[in-house]
Amino acid sequence: MVLGLAISTFPNAFSATTGGNLWRGKQYSTKNIYYTSSFALKASQQKRKTQIEYNLLSSHNPSLNHDYKCIGGGFPHQEFKTKSIVKAIPEESFSCEPHASNPKNIFDVVKNFLVALYWFCYPYTVIGRTLSTISISLLAVNRISDISPLFFTGLLQVLIPHLFMDIYINGVNQLFDVEIDKINKPFLPLASGQLSFTTGVIITMSSLALSLGLGWITGSWPLIWSLILCCAFWTAYSINVPLLRWKGNPLLAAMCIFVTWAFIFPITFFLHMQTSVLARPVTFPKSLFLIMAFMGFYSIGIAMFKDISDMEGDNTFGIHSFSTKLGQKRVFWICVSFFEMAFGVALLFGLGSSFLWIKIITSIGYAALASILWNQAKSIDLKSKASIGSFYMLIWKPASFCL
């Protein structure tokens, strides 16, 4: 800033002493001396005027005395800069206020933490499981009057504890996979350093306690067993202790996803609504078996597909997935085949309905979904993580809505 003020002052000095006159010869030297003397007189007057202004300012703000001496003292052409510097000092002092007291900075910190927490939770799995919970709960509805405040209360009893269980499952997986994620998923908050390891532990364990505690408060045994089984399977999947860390074995890893999505979720969610909320005897409708059959095939496809983009990190840390054993391309098309079989099973169930409108809707709907997925699969670039990731997000959508 001082350099800028000095530069802004120099042109006037040059125009008074030399500005286009030196090259004209000695005949103009007398005029130059006159100009220089005049300028010196004006500068002297300017200095006295500046000193008066400075004294007035410093009488109101004594802190300017020290600033003036530090910035202006001993600097060349001080008499031409003093006025500008004195006026600039209060602005500089204002900008040095502590940043921590700025509400905008506090807002940014909170916003960044919430964004990191959002990605820590694996949002696509939370959204998928939430939509599936709603779909399965609706299977217990026999008439319009069943959709009552009691029904929505029972739905929240499932959604809230399982939301915290989802955070626990995703959190414990990231805590034991930090080094692998630095290779496979460097954007995740623990791998990227957006969240510290300690913060991750606190969030994960707090979520587990809230999930089990809220589930116990409901008194619904189907819901309690759902939470206990999910916790047991996915803890065994992630933690690195003897006999566990099932994600290192492709069959055990696939079994965790298969059992959770094809059996635990459909059966326990339905029984919670049927017995604990609506107080009806245990019955299993055909639609529940359809969901279990559909998710049986579809969950196997998801279990195999999720590791396709993680081959580099899995090979480095000795994780034996289907992709590392069979290769990306072969596993990819095996997964697509399982997805198509799931749509085929759903279509056959729909055609077996005694209602014509159900036959038409299911035939058109599942045929359309199968066609979309097949066409998207043909355009996937298996060398691109972004392309694989985009397809992975696509396959979660039918799992969410068809459940």
From TrEMBL:
Gene3D superfamilies: UbiA prenyltransferase. It is found in: Plastid, Chloroplast membrane. One of its GO terms (cellular component) is chloroplast membrane. It comes from the Eukaryota. The keyword Membrane applies. The keyword Flavoprotein does not apply. Keywords: Chloroplast, Membrane, Plastid, Transferase, Transit peptide, Transmembrane, Transmembrane helix. Pfam families: UbiA. GO terms for molecular function: prenyltransferase activity. This is Glycinol 4-dimethylallyltransferase. It comes from Psophocarpus tetragonolobus (Winged bean).
